Amino acid sequence: MSSGGVPLDGIGGIIAGHRARARLLPGLSPRQREVAELVTSGLSDPEIADRLFISPRTVRAHVADVLRHLEATSRVEIACAMVLAQVSGFLG
Fold it and tell me: Rounded to a whole number, what is the distance in angstroms from the first to the last CA of the chain?
């Protein structure tokens, strides 16, 4: 048990899940990857839509596709996978 009350093996499992998602990132389409990068930057769907000149509905569809592809449940998991992929060299 860590000092914060979280089992250390629980943290290892969380990190392992993010690593597994990071390894799936190269399989995203270029647009999905672009949306994932903007999600990682903390942008909202309307902000991403403005940046990419697409509708917020299209952004929501891309985010949903990325979540499904990565077997993730939140934008935070997308961001964690992106950061791990970048530092681990999974994205080239």
Answer: 36
Q: What is the tens place of the pLDDT at every residue in 15-36?
A: 777 777 878 888 999 999 999 9
CA separation for the pair 24, 91 (Å, rounded):
10
Number of Cβ within a 10 Å radius of residue 82: 24
Cα angle: 41, vertex 43, 79; to 5 degrees = 40
Distance (Å) of CA 86 to CA 21, 57, 68, 83: 12, 28, 20, 5
Note the pLDDT tens digit of each residue in 74-85. 999 999 999 988
Single out the residue of 68, 88, 65, 67 nearest to residue 16, CA to CA: 88
Q: Please answer whether residues 39 and 79 qualify as being in contact, where contact means their C-beta atoms are separated by less than 8 angstroms.
A: yes
- In Å, how far from its chain's centre is CA 46? 18
Q: How far apart are CA 26 and CA 12, in angstroms?
A: 23
